[in-house]
Amino acid sequence: MAVEPQKSHRPGPLKQQNKAHKHGKHKSKGQLERETKGRVNVKVLSKRSRQSMKKAERRNQALQMRKQKRDEVLEKKRNRGGTNTPPHFVVVVSLDRNIDTKVLLDLLKIADDSAVVKQNEQGILHLSIPRFKQRVSIFTPEYGNLYALLDAAKIADTLLCAVSTDNVIDKYGEHCLSCLYGQGMPAAVFVCNGFKSLPMKKQAETRKLMQRKIEKRFPAEKFHSLDTSQDALLVVRQITNQKLRNIQYRDVRPHLIGEEISFELDNTESDTGTLKVTGYLRGKTLTVNRLVHIPGWGDFQMLQIDAPDDPYPLNLHPGKQNRKTQDVEMESEDPRSEVNVLERCEPGKQESLDSEVLPDPMMGEQTWPTEEELAEAESESKRKIVKRVPKGTSDYQAAWIIDSDEEEGDDSEEESDEEMDADMEAQEENDSSEEEDVNDDDDKSEYETVTIAEDDASKYDAAMDLDEDMQMLAKLKEEKQHVMFPDEVDTPANVTARTRFARFRGLKSFRTSPWDPKENLPSDFARIFQFENFKRTKKRCIEEDLDEGAMPGWYITVHVANVPKAFIEGYQPGSPVVLFGLLPHEHKVSVVHFVVKKCAEVDQPIRSKDRLIFHVGYRRFSANPIFSQHTLGSKHKFERFMPTGTAVVATVYAPILFPPSPVLVFQEVAYGEQSLVATGTLLSVNPDRIIAKRAVLSGYPFKINKRSAVIRYMFFNREDIMWFKPVELRTKWGRRGHIKEPLGTHGHMKCVFDGKMKSQDTILMNLYKRMYPKWTYNPHVTMPVVVKEYGAGDMESDDKAGEGAAYQMFE
Question: For the chain, which end, N or C, has fewer CB atoms within 10 Å of the first or last residue's CB respectively?
Answer without folding.
Answer: N
